[in-house]
Amino acid sequence: SANMKLLMLAGDGIGPEVMGEVKRVISWMDKRRHVAFDLDEDLVGGACYDAHGVAVTDATMDKAMSVDAVLLGAVGGPKWDDVARAHRPEAGLLRLRKDMDLFANLRPAVVFDALIDASTLKPEVVRGLDIMIVRELTAGVYFGQPRGTDVRDGVRYGFDTQIYSEPEIDRVARVAFDLAKKRGNKVTSVEKANVMESGVFWREVVSNVHREAYGDVALNHMYADNCAMQLVRWPGQFDVIVTDNLFGDILSDCAAMLTGSLGMLPSASLGEADASGFRRAMYEPVHGSAPDIAGQNKANPLATVLSFSMMLRYSFDMGADADLIDAAVKNVLAAGLRTADIMSDGATLVSTEGMGRALIGELDKMAA
Ligand code: NAD
Ligand code: IPM
Ligand code: MN
């Protein structure tokens, strides 16, 4: 359709650099496939703080709530390390997730054949890998109250609260089971039921959902520490992993290295579908603003390009166009092009822009 509304929030550090390559893909789609997005751009994170004194403005929130999909680059950086928590760049991202109620964060870790050598793990461990991490994104210790610092009996404390309601666990578990049915039909639910009350509860609710509605999907439970270990020992055992906000954050960075680089991992953050089938959504790479390489035209744009492809798939039902972009990524990698983070012997080193241009060249070839 001609009026797909898209809000782009490039953010900080490498955010604008990797987003620039998505823009290249968007204008290609416009020109070559006559797919026109109604594109709006705005500030978020440190860039927004510098301009407006907050990490995301109410006006931007209003836009985010009304568009069909949001595409986000990355936020944060040392420049804002001393800003009060409520206005830190990360607070902008957390507000977007919370206010849009994007409770289901899908983080697929897929190993491209061409990148098997880029992983720090042995080829036979990572070949053919396809794991979907479903991270709960709007609750848990990220948002639980009370939190803060205090002085008790003259001793200073810092504290946060891990808390999950039954509906919060129930709905994310359903997303995981539904995804598993379309994949390998297996869900691993991850918590620390051995030490945490909320972990016992998590396990109970996931088991109930399983028993009531998804008995035909294989379910197993795993402690988070063991899961971190199993991800590098034998990642092939996993199909869908469902876990809480904090464990999901950590385990997805871990899973990223199976694919060769954090610069390869896309994500989709989805809300609940309304009566018409519409669901709020934000698409973002799993990585951050990478201050160590920002401004150097070195960042890998593929995580963000693949996030855009997830957007086409999940928000716009444009599977064929998403397939095209995924294939273009696969082909440029097969042709030996590498940004620095996935560089290996005999490959060709390219910049952020070089990778983007190569993608367009590949798209041109495929569409010819
Ligand atoms: P990071 O993900 O920014 O970087 C970790 C390492 O991975 C760095 O060495 C970086 O150079 C590398 N890396 C990340 N993305 C890459 C890419 N696309 N191409 C090549 N290399 C890449 O994590 P960090 O250094 O812990 O955090 C930096 C800042 O980013 C912090 O302010 C943090 O809060 C923020 N952050 C934001 C998001 C987000 O916006 N979604 C996610 C994670 C971290
Ligand atoms: C991520 C990031 C964020 C998180 C930060 C920047 C708030 O690490 O998206 O993985 O912890 O969720
Ligand atoms: Mn993270």
CATH superfamily of the largest domain: Isopropylmalate Dehydrogenase
How much of the sequence is in beta strands? Answer: 15-25%
* Name of the CATH first level of the largest domain: Alpha Beta
Distance between the termini: 23 Å
CATH topology of the largest domain: Isopropylmalate Dehydrogenase
Tally of separate domains: 2
How many strands, which pairing sense, and closed or not: the largest β-sheet?
10 strands, mixed
Bound small molecules, by name, code or SMILES, are: nicotinamide-adenine-dinucleotide, 3-isopropylmalic acid, manganese (II) ion
Strand order of the largest sheet: 2-1-3-12-11-4-5-10-8-9
Q: What is the ordering of alpha helices and beta strands?
A: EHEHHEHEHEEEHEHEHEHEEHHEEH
Question: How helical, in percent, are the residues?
Answer: 40-55%
Subcellular location: Cytoplasm
Pathway: Amino-acid biosynthesis; L-leucine biosynthesis; L-leucine from 3-methyl-2-oxobutanoate: step 3/4
GO biological process, one term: L-leucine biosynthetic process
Family: Belongs to the isocitrate and isopropylmalate dehydrogenases family. LeuB type 1 subfamily.
